[in-house]
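Encode chain A's predicted structure.
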Amino acid sequence: MMKKAVILANGMPPAKSVFRFLEKSGYDFLICADGGANSAYKLRLLPNVIIGDFDSVNQAVLEFYKPDTEIIKISRQNDTDVEKCLKYCIKHGIADIILLGVTGDRLDHSYCNLGIILKYFNKLKIKIIHQKSVLSAHTGNVMFTTFKGETISLYGFDKKTKIQSNGLKFPLKNVPLPFGERESTSNVAIKDKIKLTVNGGKIFIVREYKVVSENGFLKLY
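Encoded structure for chain A:
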């Protein structure tokens, strides 16, 4: 069985109910990226590991967690703290990751963390949950369960990547969605199964967190 983990970064944290849902879905290993430990402390969560250069975490929080949590300081600056956590996951055979707190009040951090999904695409299965949305990257043949009426958005990056869809209100007929030119924002499911064929590259799919969580779709998606 694929090992699963949640990585909590220093951005806007989710409600505690998100952690409860993820734990029930098998994501019961919590890694905090530096200042993400501050959010874990406020939410009364116990991280398994805290990783970073520790320029953001409150030292009192580190002291609080020292007895029960593995604390790994990595000072090198060529990796972000989230990447340090992802490399920990690769080393320890954890391949299915949910990123939380990776979006917030800084666009550069948010943009960087979206790019990280693509950077580690061939090594890790990564999703981002942020407020009302779940984002993941895909290529090849993609099929997932939904219900009629769910809002689903698709984003590509270049003209080489072609997308064919079945089950969406606004169908894509082997067309590209180059960034800055065309996108499929707020498309709508008209079937209970969505089928996509993505050739020549990767795309982002953004779905409704409420739909995914309330219907147990995360394990199928």
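The CA atoms of residues 29 and 76 lie 24 Å apart.
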